[in-house]
Specification:
Blueprint: H1 14-25, H2 28-31, H3 33-40, H4 48-72, H5 78-86, H6 89-124, H7 128-134, H8 137-157, H9 159-186, H10 189-200, H11 214-224, H12 232-236, H13 244-273, H14 276-283, H15 290-294, H16 300-315, H17 317-335, H18 353-373, H19 376-404, H20 406-409, H21 418-445, H22 455-480
Length: about 500
């Protein structure tokens, strides 16, 4: 059968779909961001956990919007399909192109910083020569690129290979993460201070009070919003989901609730043992993580175990996120917005192999960017900006869908009441607009050495380039179809 006639296969059940979202969310966000935020947002102090809870509000609204829209439009490249059919083709492309750019960059960031955790595992095991080798730039870059292209290959091999890798790693990641939770709540601040004095001959007096500042709180919440980015990857696999009108919304909502609860317990456990003022002080001079902070009160072997858990959590981000960005490109190509070759399906594995290769190439650029920028938070900032725009447009689509495309609106199978849809769409749009404004203001006003360390202008430049490409292809489609764009009002064929 010719490649052009092949189609994606519906092989992903509820558990695998949930794993796709969970593994996209759990990673750098859980092990690094809640603690390095003390450096990135100075003055947040003891208010990290309340900011985290506040950050979950717009994420929940966005997840509900995604879940509702997925029940009506279960196709590959979910966010592009939703907004292009329910809002506007151009805005649908911008929503998904923004998502594609942010996730592609952060895949490279994750692959790059995961090598540092592998290095820490080798240190914990006493393999000092190996740890020294892992610090060499060429080795670190090489391993990061190898991780990306290994998972590109696994994704090309098909959903069976994908599931074999993803599910065991997810279970192991949770098991090792629970060690952090138990250890963090078992010990307390006194235990930490005593251990610090014994191991480093260092006396530390925790700071107890700090003034609350709404501006700092909102900036922190906007950055912690990154912790919930990833459930959207479930929607991108809409053409590969079994019973998609039920499993897609279920997987989206269940994954964010499960991950949100796990995140809160995990971060609470670390802050229960390690004083926030110590975290703030240490973050000024070095990169810190949950395993590194708890290692003071744990026996060496257990410290190695939780560092290993962090490494697995990071690496496990990669296959799910690669699947997500590749399906976006597949959907663009299927609609004629991108070259049709990108939508080619592998003759044996029934996967969009060209789009996966392009996704791997873009992620590789993210690895090089991480190395030369020297600050992984730039990648995080870009992802937050990109995904806030995406989520905002998804919530807007929920508002406009019945007017723009009533036939597809009639296919919604959850939260069928229009009043419920409007509450979710409007509330989500308001919260996300607030978060986007706060995040943008913080980014623009931050003091950086070069303009390209600001995420906002970088994002704008990329969106301008994307817009030019879109309108070039839009004109081509118009000529080919004699001005008929009605195919962009209905769902792509299965």
């Amino acid at each position: 059968m010719p490649e052009n006639n092949k189609k994606l296969k519906r092989n992903l059940g509820l558990v695998t779909l949930m794993a796709t979202g969970i593994c996209s969310m759990l990673g750098a966000s859980i092990n690094v961001v809640p603690f390095m935020i003390q450096r990135n947002i100075p003055g947040i102090g003891p208010y990290v956990l309340p900011a985290f809870i506040f950050a979950m509000i717009p994420a929940l609204f966005a997840a509900l919007a995604y879940g509702i829209l997925s029940s009506a439009m279960p196709r590959a490249g979910g966010s592009y399909i939703y907004a292009s059919r329910g809002l506007n083709p151009y805005l649908g492309f911008i929503a998904s192109f923004s998502q594609w750019f942010g996730l592609s960059i952060v895949i490279g960031v994750i692959a790059y910083i995961s090598v540092a955790f592998i290095r820490d595992v080798s240190i914990g095991l006493g393999w000092l020569k190996i740890s020294t080798i892992l610090e060499l730039p060429i080795i670190r870059i090489g391993i990061a690129l190898s991780l990306i292209w290994t998972f590109v290959y696994i994704n090309i091999k098909g959903t069976r290979s994908y599931k074999k890798i993803l599910l065991p790693m997810m279970y192991l990641m949770f098991a090792l993460g629970f060690i952090v939770i138990v250890a963090g709540f078992y010990h307390n601040t006194d235990d930490f201070i005593k251990a610090l004095e014994i191991k480093e001959n260092r006396v530390f007096y925790p700071q107890t009070n700090i003034d609350f500042d709404w501006r700092i709180f909102l900036s922190a919440a906007a950055l912690l919003f990154s912790s919930f980015i990833g459930f959207d990857s479930i929607a991108q696999a809409g053409s590969e989901a079994k019973n998609p009108t039920k499993t897609l919304p279920q997987a989206i909502i269940l994954s964010i609730v499960l991950v949100g609860s796990f995140y809160f317990l995990f971060s609470s456990a670390v802050y229960h043992t390690v004083p926030w003022s110590f975290i703030a002080e240490e973050s000024k001079v070095k990169d810190i993580s949950a395993p590194g902070l708890l290692s003071y009160v744990l026996p060496p072997w257990l410290g190695v175990a939780i560092v290993l858990g962090a490494a697995i959590a990071l690496i496990n981000d990669l296959p799910a996120m690669l699947l997500s960005v590749s399906r976006l490109m597949f959907a663009w190509a299927d609609d004629g917005i991108f070259p049709s070759k990108i939508a080619k399906i592998h003759h044996r594995h029934s996967t969009p192999y060209i789009s996966l290769i392009v996704a791997g190439t873009m992620a590789s650029i993210g690895v090089l960017g991480s190395h030369f920028a020297g600050d992984f938070f730039l990648g995080i900032d870009i992802m937050v900006t990109s995904m806030m725009v995406n989520f905002l447009l998804m919530c807007t689509t929920l508002i406009t869908l019945p007017t723009v495309n009533p036939s597809l609106a009639a296919e919604i199978s959850i939260f069928k009441k229009r009043s419920s849809q409007l509450i979710i769409g409007i509330a989500g749009s308001l919260f996300l607009s607030l978060f986007l404004l706060v995040h943008t203001y913080k980014d623009i006003t931050s003091n950086v050495s070069h303009w390209y360390f600001h995420s906002t202008p970088v994002w704008l430049i990329v969106m301008i380039v994307g817009s030019v490409l879109f309108f070039i292809k839009w004109k081509e489609i118009g000529k080919e179809r004699n001005g008929d764009y009605t195919h962009l009002n209905r769902l792509p064929k299965e």
